[in-house]
Task: structure prediction
Amino acid sequence: MAQMLLLVNPEKCTGCGTCEVVCSLKHVGECNPARSLVRALRYEKMGSYYFSVPVVCQQCETPLCKEVCPVNAIIQDPETGAYLVDANTCIGCRICTIACPIGAINIDPQTKTASKCDLCNGDPLCAKFCLPEAIIYVKRDKRSLIQMREAAKKLSDRLTLISGGA
Result:
């Protein structure tokens, strides 16, 4: 199976939260964004809405979360290539959440263990239900990695603009 990834385009995100709802429904059986494996972060400044951005695990080539886990609770799925958290092994120490450069790992408020995108076993619902296509599921290749880098640059520029930076 070809390696796939979730490509995020912050410019298309409307902040609707559908990705969070379908994710939590699939993974924990309830519509609860606090337990979703994807987050739609909403950026605001002094009460004014600016934009939203979906944050989802990018299944890094060198996953820092896996590297720092003291109990080896992050394993790679041989079918999808996704890095998964083994909740039975995870001790909830939060080191992986600190190591993740994009903040895509969270601690589940009920289980108290780490949680991150598992690509829905190769059929991610967040991408299926994202009508504006802010999240799409694509083959991991040079083109998609360039698109990912360009989207990250645009997001960085946008954050700099709203924070008043130069």
The chain has one domain: 4-163. Strands lie at 4-8, 39-45, 48-55, 74-76, 83-85, 106-107, 114-115, 135-139.
